[in-house]
Structures are given as structure tokens and as C-alpha cells.
Amino acid sequence: MKPTHIEHIGIAVESIETARKFYEQVLGLECYAMEEVPDQKVKTAFFRLGDTKIELLESTDPEGPIAKFIARKGPGLHHIALAVENAGEALAEAASSGTELIDKVARKGAENLNIGFLHPRSAGGVLIEFCSK
Fold first, then answer.
1. What is the enclosing helix (H) or strand (E) of 16?
2. Which of 104, 102, 103 is nearest to 120 (CA)?
3. Distance (Å, rounded) from C-alpha 93 to C-alpha 4?
4. 123, 126, 65: which is closest to 94 by C-alpha?
5. DSSP states along 55-105
6. Bridge partners for 44 per DSSP
7. 77: closest CA among 54, 106, 99?
8. What tens digit of pLDDT does each residue of 20-31 get?
9. Burial call 104-124: b when 16+ CB within 10 Å, e when fewer
10. Helix (H), strand (E) at residue 52
């Protein structure tokens, strides 16, 4: 498994509508897609910046992972997503090297990507997501 590029940077926000204004009005980026991912209890908004995307994440449930993250750490950088050829294989390879996983198998995420997360304890405190088409 070798990541090809940063697929996106995930940013936890309390309100997509409020945060979206900053990305559009101050940075001049355009929101090209919004989507709700019910099983992750999150609403997303995407902006392109070259080959990388910025993903805003708003919780749809006070008990969801983004709401819990914001309660603990406040809004801000949530994760870095790396593009890989096959997210499931990348997770298995990471596990075989002793890396602690959040997702043992890949699952569907926003933009219909296959995704899986590595635990921040194994990545120097950074939540890393693998993404593949």
C-alpha cells in the first residue's frame, strides 16, 4: 500500500452553513457537493483545492463521532484522508504491521468512496483515513 495523494482534509465544524461562508467568501472556494452519511451521523460539504479536497463535517446527532470530537477538542482539523488503490487491502496491510485500526474492513463513506480509519494512537495522534474508489 502506498498512498498516491492527500484525498481530503476533514474539518469538524459546528455548522456547515456558517463554516461554508468562510471557505467561499474568504478563500474563494466553491462548495461542489453536500451529502449526509447517516451511518456516520454526519453531514458533509466538499471544496476542491487542486487535487485535494476539504471536507467540512457537521454532526447530525449529539452522540455522533463528530459531536463527541467537538465536545472534547472543539472545532478544527479532524482527519487526513489518503488516497490508496484499495482501502480494504491498505487496512489489512496496516494491521499486519501492528497498526491499531478503527475500521477492520473498509466501508462506504461520502462520495461513494470505500474508507477505513487508522487509530490516532498508532499515527502520532493523527486520525488517518484510507480512501479508494
1. helix 16-21
2. 102
3. 16
4. 123
5. EEEEESSTTSHHHHHHHHH-SEEEEEEEE-S-HHHHHHHHHHTT--BS-SS
6. 35, 57
7. 54
8. 999 999 999 999
9. eebeebbbebbbbbbeeebbe
10. strand 52-59
Using an 8 Å Cβ cutoff, are 87 and 96 in contact? no
What does the DSSP 8-state code read for residue 36? E
Residues 6+ apart with CB under 8 A from 31: 20, 23, 24, 45, 46, 47
Q: Residue with C-alpha cell 474492513?
A: 105
* Cell numbers found for residue 15: 455548522
Cα 45–chain centre separation? 11
Q: Which residues pair with 54 in a beta bridge?
A: 9, 47
pTM: 0.93
Residues of the chain short of pLDDT 70, as ranges, are none
- Give residue 1's pLDDT: 78
